[in-house]
Amino acid sequence: NNHLALREALQAGYDDVVMLDCNRHVAEGPVANIMFVNKLKVLIVPRSIHALAGITQDTVIQLAGSVGLGGGRFGTRHVGVNELNMFTEAFYVGTSYGIRPIVSISRPLFPEPWTYAGAADGSFGVKLFERYHQTVRDPKEYPEWHILVD
Known about the structure:
The chain is of the alpha+beta class. The protein is 22% helix and 19% strand. The strands form 2 sheets. The protein has a 5-stranded mixed β-sheet, covered by helices on one side. The chain has a two-stranded antiparallel ribbon with strand order 1-2. The radius of gyration is 15 Å and the shape is globular.
């Protein structure tokens, strides 16, 4: 299904696809979890029995507070397709993606652009992106997340 949905999206001029469950709730991306930031700066994680739990998703949830996102709070709930324009940011998270921005869904742009001029002025997605890459490269901070191989 993911491959067919992505092919259809590409043929329609889109870059990627957001997968919905049978109730038209957001489930995930084709090969990654999807996350949103709302106007209260709270990380929203879509709840769906049709999406796999992700290691990178769990990592991002744990790192969210360290970049000032909602005081570390996050919400897990159903996200209806009609709510997508209510978020300020969206991004995919996954092992192969790391953290990847979503600029728009069905054409309207999200109000928080991903600027890489510096995390202090950037969106929370940029801050999470930088924090995630710092964390996965430094085995001292979260040693339980790293297994050293000789």
